[in-house]
Amino acid sequence: MSKTRDITVTVNGTVHEAAVEPRLLLADFLRHTLGLTGTHVGCEHGVCGACTILLDGDSARSCLMFAVQADGRRIETVESLGRIGKLNALQEAFHEHHALQCGFCTPGMLMTATDLPKKYPLASDDDIRKGLSGNLCRCTGYQHIVKAIRAVVGKAKDASGDTS
Amino acid sequence: MNDTTEIHARPKIVGARIKRTEDPRLLTGLGSFTDDRQVPRVLHVAFRRSDQPHARIRAGDCAAARAAPGVVAVFTATDLEGLVKPLVAASRMKNYRATPFLPLARGKVRYVGEPVVGVVAGSRYQAEDALELLTIDYEPLPLVIDPEAAVRPGAPLLYEEAGTNVLVAREFKRGDPDGAFAAAPVRVQGRFRMHRKTPVAIEPRACLAEYDAGRDALTLHSATQVPGIVADAVAAALDLPGSHVRVIAPDVGGGFGGKGSLYPEEIFVCAAARQLGRAVKWTSDRMEDLIANSQGFDEIVDAELALDADGHVTALRADVIGDVGSGSIYPWTAALEPVQVVSFLPGPYRIANYHGRVRGVATSKAPLGPYRGVGRPISTFVMERLIDMAAVKLGLDAKAIRLKNLVAASELPYKVASGIVWDQSGFHECLHAACGAIGYDALRARQQAARAAGRWVGIGVACYAELTGIGSRISVAPGMPINTGTETAIVRIDATGAVTAAFGIASHGQGLETTLAQVVAEHLGVRVEDVSVVQGDSALIAGSTGTYASRSMVLAGARRRWPRRRCAKRFSTPRRICLKRLPPISSPKPAPSRLPAPTVRSASVRSPAPSIRKWAGCRRTRAMSLPPPGPTIRCLAPRRRPRISPRSRSIRRPTKSASRISPSPRIAASWSIR
Lengths: 164, 674
Hints:
The structure holds 2 protein chains of 2 kinds.
Chain A (H helix, E strand, L loop, with lengths): L4 E7 L2 E7 L5 H8 L18 E4 L2 E4 L12 E3 L12 H8 L9 H14 L5 H7 L10 H17 L6
Parallel strand pairs in A: 1-5
Antiparallel strand pairs in A: 1-2, 3-4, 3-5
Helix pairs in contact in A: 2-5
Chain B lengths: L2 H7 L13 H5 L15 E7 L5 E7 L1 H4 L4 E5 L1 H4 L6 E2 L11 E2 L6 E2 L5 E7 L2 H8 L3 E6 L6 H4 L15 E9 L2 H7 L2 E12 L8 E7 L4 E6 L4 H11 L7 E4 L15 H13 L3 E4 L2 H7 L3 E12 L5 E13 L10 H9 L8 E10 L13 H19 L3 H8 L8 E2 L5 E2 L4 H12 L1 H13 L20 H4 L12 E5 L5 E5 L8 H13 L6 E4 L17 H5 L7 H8 L4 E4 L32 H5 L26 E2 L6 E2 L3 H4 L15
Parallel strand pairs in B: 1-14, 12-13, 16-17, 21-22
Antiparallel strand pairs in B: 1-7, 2-6, 2-8, 3-7, 4-5, 9-17, 10-15, 11-12, 11-14, 15-16, 18-19, 20-21, 20-23, 24-25
Helix pairs in contact in B: 11-12
């Protein structure tokens, strides 16, 4: 169909140049053009939050954006967090608190939870729940997810200045 | 510190709180869900689905779609003739009318969402573009929506050849229910409606078929709970030997029953890949999942309970209409959900007279399939509601009326009218314990005080028995071509000392890789991190089905009662050990004859075993054949014997705590349906 557009996107610190169809979803670009399949697609209409990424540092739905809209912008996906054997504090807390079951919603949960503490004090667990309201876990493991995030937020407060 | 102390200090692995072994890959975006798999030159499928609930397909025009950019092929049911054989969810049940299972609608559509045309193109985008170029001419037929209307004479028929919309009918009768009702001083009745549900796993269904033309072999990755069942079905539909079909359920994002059956798309991608000689993938979108996945429940129950003046139930009768949708789900049949409603309806209660009648009725909706609890949610709701209504009528306390009617330990084994046998249970103990835990009597007093103060406070009491790990009889007795009651495991120890344990189950979020590794590690006396659990792959294990009906730890985990002595002996010669399935019921130590269904109990039996390294440095590999599938798992008594620690070489003395572990804490009873 269609002409392509050249875009330049920085994903997880790497600059990618690509010619894409204007209608290509950002989620499909990340998953199938770049092969970063950690970002999951659960609903394709912005409801489930599994495809959440960070766009210039803000959490965003990659299924509600076209790849061309990410031209010139910076993206972080779940692959930018810790690695196996060197999980970051949030991933470690999810691991510790059994905050995942099937793991399909997990990348989106992690990216939202990466963004939340930077913007909100999350003084109460209700605040965490509100912050996660755009992410669905059909295994219904919310309690553990909230616990995991609470553990990280608590730690961050204790070691103020230690994390950015 | 003597040996015994040292051994007792060694922590148990089963039951220990450990971190899940599958987590690291899922937390780092390195899981492998079906749609994550990247295959060169893969083709993508989009389905044109019926927008009609019931219509004849008069004609269609696919020419424009075939000519669309990127389109490689367009398939209709006619194009699949000769490529795919229709499947039938078989059963010998009386009054069961089988319906054909086809990848694409042939001649007629029976629900909105039924796949009619499959377009295969270079990208999903191109395939979806081409869908819009298809024209299908439908002749609308009378609607078959309301199951009660659908059973009436003269109702329009979904399957004219069946002559009725009733795809299955069954009746369970015991005692003299009519006489008991006539004599009963107290009767309560009601009509109960359970609506349709969709399972809605977060990962949409997906399947990817790769074809090896040189071997005429297919590998299907599918987001399924039942790779073993899908593999057998694909082989049958494509007329391939089972050895040429491998189905892999990689990481699967939840199922809840919705991924527990065969789907048309799975057959379609396999047929298309074989025909086109290229990998073919389909990934559902959310809308497709919502309209075309199997759905759950959907029954109308008219039920009546008869009691004596003291509150003892004397009879129960029920008439169930199950809306099974457009046809039998494969391989479970249309009987799956509604028949279990009448089977489970008497629940844990002593009911001398019972008449349960059920009809599974075809309507223009997505097929009814397994969904959490299959039959139990509605049967429990109906029975508990009737008991509560009776309690109100008799002025009895909710707990007291249940204690009057729950099957007591002294009555075991107790056979329910539908054939379920309660051979061990703690119905009374459980209710007493639950009431004790919440301080039931004090709570009632607080309730009275609150009501006196003008506040309404409710206390609900409900009882039900959970059945996990269904046996073989439930599938074999009606002649279904699957065996639900057995599981096989293969454990291999390689030259590095690592243990690979292969299972036929298919985890989709339960964490079975971790729990089974715990079982294997404890059994072999190695560390959890030494054990790699592989599962969800039909090529690993013969004759397995998958994960459903809370069976995985009960059956696969019950491999704990492995024939250890034989293993230990064989460790000294071959590297590969096939751990045989538990002996069938006809073996020299049969289970009591009243327990034809599997009673799964396990016992940890340890025998002297050399170190892993010694096993690893063993002689030539000798393949061992698996025994033929046995129909049942029998119960085995625990045995205790001293054993030698692989590491310390010290003699371990058996301890009570180590000798027996129930495979599932939820098992309350063994059961069967005859």
